[in-house]
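A protein record pairs a chain with a discrete description of its three-dimensional fold. The following entry can be read in just this way:
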Amino acid sequence: MAIAIRRIGNLYEAEVSPPHSRSGSWATPRPMTVDALVRELERRGCHQTDIGDAFYAADPNWLSNDASEL
């Protein structure tokens, strides 16, 4: 599985497994903001390009979701 992200209102849920994650399979325990989810995926070894591609597939306007609006 690649990185799979789903939009839930203004938040996001994700699932990831190796080889995209160096720390094994993982899923968000609850919906998260863009910034928090990006940090968590990077911490788990996901590549920035893969993260961006997964966000875009889930929500083409993900970059415009400003954390101050959440």
About this structure: The radius of gyration is 11 Å. The chain has a mean pLDDT of 86.
